[in-house]
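Batch manifest line 441
LIGAND: iron/sulfur cluster
JOB: complex structure
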Amino acid sequence: MRTQFSPAQLLDPATREVEQILRKCVHCGFCNATCPTYTLKGDELDGPRGRIYLLKDMLENESRPDTKVVKHIDRCLSCLSCMTICPSGVDYMHLIDHGRDYIEKHHNRKLIDKLFRQILASILPSPNRFRWSLKLSRLAQPFINYLPRSMKAGLNLAQQSNLESGKQTFESTYPGESPIKGRIGLIPGCAQQVVANEINMASIRLLNRNGFDVELLAESECCAAIEHHLGKTSQALKRVRTNLKDWSSRLPQLDAIISNASGCGTMLKDYQHLLKGDDEFSTLASQVSNKTMDVCEFLVQHEFSINHNVLPEAFTVAYQNPCSMQHGQKINEQPTNLLKEFGFNTIGIPDAHLCCGSAGTYNILQSELATELGNKKAASIESTSADLIASGNLGCILQLRQYSDLPIMHTVQLLDWASGGPMPPELTDFASGEISEEKYS
Ligand code: SF4
Ligand code: SF4
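JOB STATUS: finished
ARTIFACT:
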């Protein structure tokens, strides 16, 4: 694609990067076929190629984005399915990141939208604020039908949360069983530690059982993905630098930084890109990115114990591969291979490349499209003979719980159970009702 940035514009490293990205696009349109919003809307401007043109025009002309441009950019899930299919290697992820940052700085959103986005960026990354807001949200439930669509979507999502799970306080270190193979740092996730801490505890048990000391990197509240995807770049970078400072003395002792929420993992792996020109933090950022691994990506490289007293083969698992995992981190077979090795039956999902509509705050801010995508994903899964759904990202788990009656849990909860941990609570409820005694052991 030909670009027309001026020499003065190209003095800015960020603009140079945008130009390099744009120049790779050959306008073939292959990406439209795998874009969830293009699939739903059938509008060129709701597909990646159209968005690339909108971004090019906006950034080249340094124009003030109008509501039409913002509407189509806001509708992008950042699912990155377009990057997986693109034959030219267009780095759409960093292009849309620049676009979102530019829109945040140059577009005047309606006051109510601006306020709501700021509230999300302030509350969600802080476990304490999030916990309190969830408690307060329960008071608002009787008035849910009188609230604006996005607030209603937020409250519906809050109903999927298990506040009891987040009451547990963390130890600083969880010692592994001997022989010790290494030491890892676990990111407990800002929202995850509040509403689904059982995922963290399952990860810790699984890693301990397999010989790893686990250190909690809990002093940092959030990886900054939420602010980053809302276009609040300076707020996000400030948080990234704080995280790096907090972790710097501990990094040398850690063999890996484990993320069990693929959205966070994708962000951590991108720290090196975000701070690549930063004299003070670039080295540290690269170290964090290079050490970050998804929990399944890490486990598949190690030997593990399996508990033969449970019968995981009684369950057919549909593994829903989150976009941030399959498109963002290019992790595809590892979680399913682990489930199989631990004894579960697995089954593929039709249209597995399509997003479930969770996408960070997307299911709150773009609830109409997110609902369509959630329903589509649930229907795809339910068209299989799956007994339950496993996923590698809390956002997808909470999203799918709204649209499917099948039990849904994190992959590590199943792996933990099959290697000596407790049965996941979702499975206990399910087993007592829907599944026959013979099938469940
Ligand atoms: S597939 Fe890649 S090269 Fe083709 S239009 Fe999409 S982004 Fe451009
Ligand atoms: S990131 Fe996803 S929603 Fe956005 S343009 Fe690419 S495929 Fe479409």
